[in-house]
Amino acid sequence: MKYKSQKVAYWFFALSMLLLSLQLIYGFIMGFAHIGYDNLHDIIPFNTARAVHTNLLVVWLLSGFMGAAYYIIPEEAENELVSVKWAYIQLISLAIVGVIAIVGYHFNYWEGRKFLEIPRPLDWLVVLNVLTFLGLILATLFRGKKKTTTSLVLTMGLVFAALLYLPGMIWFDNQTMDSFFRWWVVHLWVEGVWELIMGGILAFLLIKLTGVDREVIEKWLYVIVGLTFISGILGTGHHYYFIGTPKYWLIIGGIFSAMEPLAFLGMALFAVAMYRKGEKKHPNKIALMWTLGTAILSFVGAGLLGLAHTLPQVNLWTHGTLVTAMHGHLAFWGAYGMIVLAIISYTMPNLTGRKLYDSSKGLLAFWLSNIGMIGMTTAFAAAGVAQVYLNRIMGLDFGDSQNEIQVHFIILILCATLFTIGIAMFIIEFIKYGRPNNETLNNH
Ligand code: HEM
Ligand code: HEM
Ligand SMILES: [Fe+2]
């Protein structure tokens, strides 16, 4: 750690881990509901559990990204964070808005728009929160000594992510229009600007962990960013096939979204190549595993499993089924969950001065969570394909087809248990590191 103010990152990571734990509880509630044990139905019906599960996911990832930015920007810009006090105010207000939203969902205070369930009045609080965050990051960057490509790409991703929140706040009476702009947030986040955030964090980690020259890593980053943008923007069309938009989206969405996996493949090949090129290997092997894991699993989850249902001929059948949940899990985990755990694994020894990166628990956390998640994805895939066949091709009633696929949810719960043990170990390690302190200043 080079700057005292980087310690702020720790608290964002802690909030992130807390919300991740809560997310998993709601995942289990839904998993059990799928096999007929919907005992909590009166308090937490399935739709509430689903909204809480996915919203907690988004907030723990955002909290992780913010922590990453509070750590990376001072170090890259060579400048203390402009105000530590405001960063803590921003942290606490983020937690408060999150709690109000999640509690509200249990009392039907929400909007039925997947991922954007937060009611509009609360959206304004989110806007205030994010403006505070961006103000701090931008001021730190522009008053700093250096503006590296890595810090600019990361910051650009964060600024664009904030801007793209706004289309989701416009009110439409028309369902198609509402859906159209909902995807500007959901799709253009995960398949556009969040990739910049991920690219920025990935570049930072690769520079630190492989010892390869910054120039080499950053040059490639430009190429990947270019690919992401070109394919991801028009790739939005893969959500416009059947929602009442003009027919040309079938072709545009099909072609451009089918190119998207190339950007992810590029990122995976790039990360592995940098790893192999690097001579000065950092001792923090666990951080390196999470970093390479991100690049590889995001290609599988987002790239390959996205490609699996992105053509209109396939999506016609699979749209809105458990095939989507299959892809949603591995994509979110591989790309964004893992990059957050990667930056946490890298920064914790630097923040606390304790070098726990050789522990077998850390390794086990990596393998159990990843094997568990791949198992969960497989269970969703089997359930999804069977659902498409039974419900959409054979014409079985929705409820009847759900009964037929229950067995896959038993497997899902088993794999989710493995995953959860892995995450629990990661969090135990996190707690064992203890609080950040100034011990490691200037010697990282
Ligand atoms: C890290 C990047 C990605 C993440 C986190 C992600 C996640 C998700 C999620 C959560 C959904 C469900 C959204 C909703 O219904 O509101 C979804 C839908 C979809 N994704 Fe992705 N995705 C990613 C990248 C990709 C890529 C690269 C492709 C194509 C190659 C793709 C293809 C699709 C398609 C076709 C759907 C619509 C499914 C349906 O019709 O129900 N995704 N994605
Ligand atoms: C204990 C672990 C978990 C369990 C048991 C679980 C289970 C579930 C279930 C049953 C659903 C609803 C599927 C349906 O609509 O019927 C769901 C949705 C979802 N979960 Fe999880 N989940 C877990 C962890 C995670 C993690 C770690 C992530 C992300 C990194 C995640 C991301 C999602 C997403 C994006 C959706 C919405 C998918 C869609 O739009 O179709 N889940 N989860
Ligand atoms: Fe998309």
Q: Can you tell me about this structure?
A:
The chain is an all-alpha fold and 444 residues long. The chain has one domain (4-433): Cytochrome C Oxidase, Chain A (Up-down Bundle), CATH 1.20.210.10. 76% of the residues lie in helices and 0% in strands. The protein has helices spanning 8-34, 46-77, 84-106, 120-142, 149-163, 175-210, 214-235, 248-277, 285-307, 312-318, 322-352, 360-393, 398-404, 406-433. The longest helix has 36 residues, at 175-210. The mean pLDDT is 96. The site of one protoporphyrin IX containing FE has 20 residues, from helix 1, helix 2, helix 11 and helix 14.
End-to-end distance:
5 Å
Bound compounds:
protoporphyrin IX containing FE, fe (ii) ion
Supply the CATH architecture: Up-down Bundle
Shape: globular
- Written as H for each helix and E for each strand, in order along the chain, the element string is HHHHHHHHHHHHHH
Oligomer description: single chain
User: How many whole angstroms does the radius of gyration measure?
Assistant: 21 Å
CATH fold-level name: Cytochrome C Oxidase, Chain A
Instruction: Please write the CATH class name.
Output: Mainly Alpha
Arithmetic mean pLDDT:
96
Strand content: under 5%
Reconstruct the topology from this structure.
Elements: H1 8-34, H2 46-77, H3 84-106, H4 120-142, H5 149-163, H6 175-210, H7 214-235, H8 248-277, H9 285-307, H10 312-318, H11 322-352, H12 360-393, H13 398-404, H14 406-433
Helix pairs in contact: 1-2, 1-3, 1-14, 2-3, 2-4, 2-5, 2-11, 3-4, 4-5, 5-6, 6-7, 6-8, 6-9, 6-11, 7-8, 8-9, 9-11, 11-12, 12-13, 12-14
Bound molecules: protoporphyrin IX containing FE (HEM) (2 copies) and fe (ii) ion (FE2).
